[in-house]
Specification:
Largest sheet: none
Number of domains: 1
Number of strands: 0
Distance between the termini: 27 Å
Structural class: mainly alpha
Amino acid sequence: MGVREIALRFAGVVLFIQFYIIWTLGFMDYAPQLYNYGLLRISAILLTIGLLLTLNKYLVSMIRDAIAD
């Protein structure tokens, strides 16, 4: 694993965790301004990016296996 791949996975995990922190703080009414549609939509986009960055190698190998079959 190269340094770039480790950095991408770390960024993916951070974005993944950030979504749940924002959602939890807004849902529990600790920071109600975080629980609005616009911010949750942006956080969901970041969550998706984080998942794709984290699962990138796995997804690529699955696509290659599907093409090879």
